[in-house]
Design goal:
One of its GO terms (cellular component) is cytoplasm. The protein contains 5 helices and 12 strands. By secondary structure, it is α/β, with parallel strands linked by helices. It starts with a strand and ends with a strand.
Length: 239
């Protein structure tokens, strides 16, 4: 089967639905590389859809853990020093769960099962990619596959990552590291991108869906890219 890999959704549910229309379940393995939640207006619906898709398609669908799922899990489990999630989209996400009458704890077990990577012989998918600094799978390592923003190293296979939004509207290929960054800033009102690959890593096509305004419009009329944090301060959004 070929691969359909989706970038950072960040609660942009309506945009996510439009991109999912391009998935061919009979011929494509679906991989989403993390950060389903926070920033956009519909994190609970995004999680619910992913959960249901995984239930139905099981082994042909893979949802990876991003740094925002990691922060959410730690907060819901009551781990020490986990309140910073609230200032990174978590406060709004919890309010959305209340609005939609959904229980975030219902999904906690599933969120905990999310792997950090998906790979075959030719393709390696993770949220933030491999920097070569420290243990890549240490969730506290700022240069690990959940948090890295440094240049990627060549891993001997094609890497596909997100995490760091691209300034333009198209996914970017980096020859030195043999990698694609497909985070095109959906929550910033730009695009949500999916990339289709043959199982050997050769490109079939990239698909970019403009962000549906419903997913990012601010009811408080803040400028684009701004939110109010839990302390009542205006802050810029960062991924």
């Amino acid at each position: 089967m070929s691969l359909f890999i989706i970038g950072d959704v960040h609660g942009c549910f309506h945009t996510y639905l439009k991109l999912m229309d391009h998935w061919e379940p009979k011929t494509e393995t679906l991989i989403q590389l993390g950060d389903l939640v926070d920033r956009g207006n519909f994190s609970p619906l995004t999680i619910r859809l992913a959960f249901e898709v995984k239930k139905v398609f099981k082994n042909s669908v893979h949802f990876l853990k991003g740094n925002h799922e990691h922060m959410m899990i730690r907060y819901l489990q009551g781990e020490p020093n986990s309140d910073h999630w609230l200032d990174n989209g978590g406060k709004e996400t919890l309010e959305q769960f209340k609005t939609h009458k959904l229980d975030p704890y219902f999904y906690l077990g599933w969120l905990n099962t999310m792997p950090l990577i998906w790979e075959n012989k030719n393709v390696l998918v993770s949220h933030a990619g491999f920097s070569g600094n420290g243990s890549p799978f240490d969730t506290h390592n700022p240069d690990g596959v959940l948090w890295n923003r440094k240049p990627l190293i060549h891993m001997g296979k094609l890497q596909v990552i997100g995490h760091t939004p691209i300034a333009g509207s198209k996914a970017e290929f980096h020859e030195a590291s043999n990698s694609w960054n497909i985070d095109t800033g959906a929550y910033q009102g730009n695009y949500l991108t999916g990339i289709k690959l043959n199982k050997d890593g050769t490109l079939i096509e990239t698909i970019t869906i403009p962000t549906d305004p419903r997913d990012v419009e601010q009811k408080n009329s803040l400028p684009s890219g701004m939110v109010i944090n839990s302390k009542g301060q205006n802050i810029s959004l960062s991924n």
